[in-house]
Design goal:
Layout: E1 3-7, H1 13-26, H2 34-43, E2 51-57, E3 60-69, E4 78-85, H3 94-108, E5 113-119, H4 122-130, E6 134-145, E7 161-165, H5 174-185, H6 198-206, E8 217-221, E9 224-233, E10 238-246, H7 255-269, E11 274-280, H8 284-293, E12 296-307
Parallel strand pairs: 4-5, 10-11
Antiparallel strand pairs: 1-2, 2-3, 3-4, 5-12, 6-11, 6-12, 7-8, 8-9, 9-10
């Protein structure tokens, strides 16, 4: 049967559900829910020119792509295309068609450098190289069994530090935005990020349907958030740490570890069974923290880049 590529139809629930299912089969270490997918489709900043693409064969979704411009990067002209084909539906041309459609979209917008995360497996890396992409930095997905792994005990807080949740900042989330902006700008990456648009952050991040404000732990000093561990949940059994970080002036005190430990304990008490996270392979301090919790690497990805012109 012929494979076709088209845009996701977010107004069709079954289409979104098939997108989520296909993504889960290809990348089960991330939380893919219809609510999260439609939220990103609707609330990504217009300057990203974001698109979700579907590769379809005989009415079945067999591959997906998320494509856009890195509008929040200080370097213009950077685009991204993250493409995943179901493991049992490879070698049917879906990946190549998704790459072509994504690249046409991005080059029409003036992108000069394209980035793509690729699973660190021989066939996936060879596929990227065939399309002119070269390997860059790598990252790991990590998994923690919340049922059978003993979490570190909850430690006493240092003087002057208290633990709150993101829900405590519901009336005024700006301090959370400021902490997120500072920590995100320091994350290891080949695409820099600058969060300067508070309203966009509210729509994209604070209102994200997977953000669990009750499980997101925040270390606070003098009323100001100084470290946090951001929790995403799928409402069933899976928990994902979307970000863990500390404001520059408070690093080296173990506050992020305290926040994450509190969040994991509450997640387990709430019935979550699996915890996932992702770390840049060069971020040894965070990898060490996650090993301390009992996380184990379950898969790796390699960022690939193609420079145009």
């Amino acid at each position: 049967m012929t494979v076709i590529v088209r845009d996701l139809r977010p107004e069709v629930p079954a289409d979104v559900e098939r997108f989520a299912h296909s993504r889960h089969l290809a990348l089960p270490y991330v939380l893919w829910t219809p609510a999260g997918i439609t939220h990103r489709q609707a609330h990504t900043h217009p300057d990203a020119h974001y698109r979700s693409l579907v590769a379809e064969e005989g009415g079945e979704t067999i591959g997906t792509a998320q494509v856009g411009i890195a509008y929040d990067s200080p370097e213009p002209g950077q685009g991204y295309l993250n493409i995943y084909v179901q493991p049992d539906r490879t070698r049917r041309g879906a990946g190549g068609l998704l790459v072509r459609a994504a690249e046409e979209h991005l080059t029409a917008l003036g992108a000069t450098k394209l980035f793509s995360w690729v699973l660190d497996e021989p066939d996936n890396r060879a596929f990227a190289e065939r399309y002119g992409y070269r390997a860059s930095r790598s990252a790991h997905f990590l998994r923690l069994d919340l049922v059978n792994t003993a979490l570190p005990r909850l430690q006493d807080l240092p003087p002057g530090v208290e633990l709150r949740t993101a829900a405590d900042f519901a009336d005024d989330p700006r301090p959370m935005f400021e902490l997120d902006a500072e920590t995100a700008s320091d994350e290891p990456s080949d695409v820099g990020v600058e969060f300067t648009n508070y309203d966009a952050w509210i729509e994209e991040t604070w209102k994200h349907p997977l953000l669990d404000r009750d499980l997101t732990s925040v270390a606070v000093v003098d009323g100001r958030p100084v470290a946090f561990s951001v929790a995403y949940t799928d409402g069933t059994a899976r928990y994902f740490t979307a970000m863990t970080g500390t404001a520059r002036a408070f690093r080296g005190r173990g506050l992020a570890k305290l926040a994450k430990n509190a969040s994991l304990h509450r997640a387990r008490a709430a019935g979550y069974k699996e915890a996932f996270t992702g770390n840049d392979s060069d971020n040894e301090p965070m990898l060490a923290i996650n090993r301390w919790f009992g996380y184990e690497i379950c898969a790796s990805e390699v960022r690939h880049v193609r420079e145009l012109g």
